[in-house]
Amino acid sequence: MQFKTLAFLSILSILLFTGCDSKEKKEEVKEEVHIQKFEKTAEYQLKTTSDKIINLKLENEKIILKDYPNKIVLLNFFTTWCPACKAEIPNLIKLQNDYKNDFVVISILLEEMKTNDEIKAFIKESNINYEVVHSPESIEVAKNLGGIKSIPTMFLINKNSNLFQKYVGLVPAEMMEIDIKKLLEK
Asked: What ranges make up the beta strands (E) of 26-113?
């Protein structure tokens, strides 16, 4: 009986500390970031579940969020079925609360078959306090950012629209908080 419990806990911890991935090759949780220059400017109007429009522009090496000037932005690509995505929600809620004057979380759903009402129910159940994008353009944005190979994947963008850090898989809140503090000091 103890062996079954130990095996179950081991498997659970592996699921929680890795991202949901369909590929065999795993990426590091925190990696050096360099976005290749975008060959053409791409602009998107992403619709949130609360019917707000978020204007996102990919230009040169910048990820410009016109609606959040002078804010540090965490773009979070996720799905509702991913255990690691669900596990990170409390951390994102806390970061949104702790740094609300200088920081914003924007989650981009990578599921096309969910209705807006289903997503709103998920948001309410999870007590999410940040914007959730449920837009047909979400997949295209993910592709233009180099593709999302594992979820969750997050991009931390500084106040000058430059990519500061890319996180793949479940990331400790302390690691993101250290990076946010670095950006606030600049």
From this structure: 30-31, 42-47, 53-59, 62-65, 72-78, 103-109
| Structure-block tokens of residue 60 | 């040169």
The pLDDT tens digits for 150-172 are 999 999 999 999 999 999 999 99
Are the beta carbons of 152 and 89 closer than 8 angstroms?
A: no
Cα–Cα distance measured from residue 123 to residue 121, given in angstroms and rounded to the nearest whole number? 5
SS3 of residue 41 by DSSP: coil
Q: What span, in angstroms and rounded, lies between the C-alpha atoms of 136 and 113? A: 10
Contacts 24+ apart (CB under 8 A), 152-156: 152/19, 152/20, 152/76, 152/77, 152/78, 152/82, 152/84, 152/85, 152/88, 153/19, 153/76, 153/77, 154/74, 154/75, 154/76, 154/77, 155/63, 155/74, 155/75, 156/72, 156/73, 156/74, 156/180, 156/183
Q: What is the pTM of this model?
A: 0.80
3 confidence band (pLDDT: 50, 70, 90): very low
